[in-house]
Every structure is written in structure tokens, then in C-alpha cells.
DNA sequence: TCAAAAGTGTTATAGGTACACCCATGT
DNA sequence: ACATGGGTGTACCTATAACACTTTTGA
């Protein structure tokens, strides 16, 4: 091994990775970028950060970070999510890897895009060392984004529909006990189409992983709705059996 | 920028990349691995190489290579395909990125998996600097593979079905003029299920990108078959219009 | 008793599946 | 004439879409 590589190795084995000059990661680095979609009340948004450093200082961008030499790719994505939202135990899925030579002005950086879906209410995104501020943006009002992040956002939005179905991502934006109307609203927002109430409910009845509870809504000025819950284990078993969940 | 990084930079800017000691790429490198599926005569195979160097010397593995600092990710995958098969103008698609810390014994290597489908006949895979030999393997008889390549192969096989439909990959394994029976055989092999002849043909008629030619088979001891051709432009247009190709 | 949203039922149609049958060619 | 694979037609059944209707609550 050459001396130059020994130098790098000693650098990256230091505990405090933040103290490494940014230049030292570059010329051959990989990063993760997270497209964190947020749902609340029939509104789909995306979490963006305002960059506090060059390049693209003051631009909005997807939250992301370089991958530390000692962490798995998936872990790095989870870490970014946790740093911003304090959320753990949220599944975050790989979308695609972006590796054009000149996508990053400071050097060669290949980035792996991840996406997930969370509930936006009462979620307080924190600014971090690399972010001046953070905010939920409506998908209809996306500002100019740094790097190739607009392209990444588009790809993730396309992937979201598939994940909502195949990974039951929708369960991450509903309370433990929810009504069928709430569930229908989630699907309508994410898939961006109106669904017929009757037909929707007919389908739901076939899905054993959606279980009717004995409980119902209270204090509403209309007929109270039955509450349902989602059984992740039953869902996984159904998927393994080759079951195909559609809407 | 530190001296150590300047050293690396000067190394990687040399034209003859093969002359760089393998160690110098490591501790933070990215590679591409290609899952090249081959079809001929109702048989689906995959192209494997026998490694000529450590680690995993003499093991079978997916063909792949480190990504040069000056090439795009997609280009690197095309290059690996071309080196082995001489094929160009074949679309090769990203599957997923594998980034576990210890997936490569010599250091941190993140690999981006690509997949494609080609015709196996008369295709002479070349051995290269890093491969002792190459061979098509039946998917039912996969030897022990190096690294996490078995997992990569599985993921790619799952992805193949989707790509066959959405990207018309099947057109890459048929001659320019083909019969509907040939087409049906391709689908049956790739999707791994029997299709009804009548129903298959009924669907084909709806697809304008499959055009009936004036020509038919010759010198067969049964009724000669109509020949068809595939129009990639019409297919692309149909996809853009939101058309959903299914089988 | 009324408004509002929950929840159920009915019907028409499109699309898929299964299967039977006819057709054109070389030997 | 017959074997072989190409090619077509039909009848059934199920999934879906559209829409109307009934039910239960609070005010």
C-alpha cells in the first residue's frame, strides 16, 4: 500500500469525522441523498434543506451526506433521516444511483438516492451543520435545486408509487388506528387519482392485513367510522406468498 | 488539498489505468458489476467470469470493474459489456447499488449493479485482464460466487421481468424479422410461465409497435409463419403516452 | 329533522382464460 | 393424405367502474 493511502486510512479511522477537511473526502467520494416525502391531510410535500456551504450555498437541496468509511450505505441514509427528523424505525428505500462525472463541481461524487414517506405534522426538521434551514415544500412549488437534485426528486417521485404499494409505505403516515376514509385519502394523494369509495372498500375486505377493530370514532357529528389497524407481519406473509397488492 | 490527495489525483489522471497498483483504487472505490443475461432457444443464461486474481481467485463472479474517475457510471457498465462481448448499442440498465462495509475483503468498495439481456448464439465472450475465462451458466446451475454476487444476481433476475416489459429488452434477443411464436417463447422463458397462443396473439394485435411484414417464413414443413418487426420509436411514443405494456 | 359522512348493493362492461377448431405447407 | 405448427373464433367468467341507495351520528 502506498504512503498516500496510509494517510487517508489514518484520517478516516479517526472517530470525529466532521473534523476532516471537506477536500479530503473528494476526488472520489460517495454520498447518499434522501428524498423524504411528507404526508398530512391530503398534502404531499418533500423535505428540502437550504445549503449553508459552498458549492451551491443558499440553494435549496435534498438532504444528504457523504458516506463514512465505516457505515453501510443504508445506515448512512437512515442517519441523514434521523439527524433531520429524529425519526428512527422508518424504512428508507434505495431509488437509484447517480454517477455523472461532472454532477458535483468539486470533484467526483457518486450519490445513492433514497426515499421514504413520513407524517409531517408535529415533525420539526432540525437544521444541521450543513443546512442553514429546512422546510417542507409542496411538490407544485419546488425552487431551483442544487446539483442534479431535481432529477433525483423526479425519479424518487416515480418510485414512490411503487413503494407505497409494495412496501406498505402508507402505513408510516397513518396513526395506529385509522378509518378507511383516511386510508383512501392517503392512496388518492400518493397515487394522484380519485378512487371510488364503494370499490375501494370492497378491495380492502380481501386484505387480511387490514383488520377491523371493535372500536369506532367518537365525538364526530356524523356516523362514526370503524377503526382499522395494519398488521405488518400478515402483510409480509402475503407478499411472500406472491400476493400482489394493487389499487 | 492535502498532499496525499494530490498524489492520488496524479495517479488517476494517467492514461493507462491498468498500470495503477490495485491497492491504490481501494479504501474508497466504486465499481460496476454487470449481470448479463443471455437468451437463446428458450434458455436463459447468465455470463460469469472466472477470476484470475485475488481476492476470490478461481471463483466464478459477475463481470465488473472499477469505475474510472473520468467516465460516467453508465459508460463504465457499457464498457464492461463491450470488453466481454464486443457488443455496443445494447441498452444496459441500473439495478441497485450494494454498499455493505465488508462486502469486499480488500477495502471499501461500493458497487452499482447493471443488467441487460443479449442473444447468446455466436457470441464469443472474451477473457480479459481480470478474467481467466468466461462462460454462460444456466440459472439452475450457478456455482459458488465471489463477494455478494449471488445476491446481486438474484436482485437482477427480479428486475429483469420488469425491464423486459418496460424497456422492450426482449427486442435485443430476436432477429430483426421474427415470428409471433418466437416472440411468445421469449416471453415464456423470461417470465417463466406458459402463455396461451390465442390470447397472446390477441394482445399483440393491439400493439402498433409490432408490425406485420409482407414476408413470411420459407422452407418449413408446415404452414409458414408471418414475420413481424419491432419499431422502437413507436414503442417509445406509446410508453410516453402512458401506455402500459403487459403480458 | 337535517346535514354530513359512513357504509352497502346493483348493474353494465371490459378483459382475461380456456379451449376448440381451421389453415397452409413439405413430405 | 397426414403430420406439423400457424392462425382464428367463441363462450365463459371475473374484475372493475359507475352510481344509487341506506345508515348512524351530533346538532
Strand and helix map with partners:
The structure is a homodimer of 247-residue chains.
Chain A lengths: L2 H10 L9 H4 L3 E12 L2 E9 L8 E2 L2 E3 L6 H13 L7 E6 L10 E11 L11 E8 L10 H18 L13 H12 L5 H10 L3 E7 L9 E5 L1 H9 L7
Parallel strand pairs in A: 1-6
Antiparallel strand pairs in A: 1-2, 1-4, 2-3, 2-7, 5-6, 8-9
The first copy, chain A, binds a DNA duplex (27 and 27 nucleotides) through helix 6.
Task: Please provide a brief summary of the model.
Two copies of one chain form a homodimer. Chain A is an alpha+beta fold.
| Mean pLDDT value of chain A | 86
User: In the CATH hierarchy, what is the superfamily of the largest domain in chain A?
Assistant: Nucleoside Triphosphate Pyrophosphohydrolase
- Name the biggest interface: A-B, 34 and 34 residues
Main sheet record of chain A: 7 strands, mixed
How many independent structural domains of chain A?
2
Count of DSSP helices of chain A? 7
At CATH's second level, what is the architecture of the largest domain in chain A?
Alpha-Beta Complex
Parts with pLDDT < 50 across at least 5 consecutive residues of chain A: 1-26
CATH topology of the largest domain in chain A: Nucleoside Triphosphate Pyrophosphohydrolase
Rg of chain A = 21 Å
The H/E string of chain A reads HHEEEEHEEEHHHEEH
Q: How many E strands of chain A? A: 9
Shape category of chain A: elongated
Broad CATH class of the largest domain in chain A = Alpha Beta
Taken as a percent bin, the fraction of beta residues of chain A is 25-35%
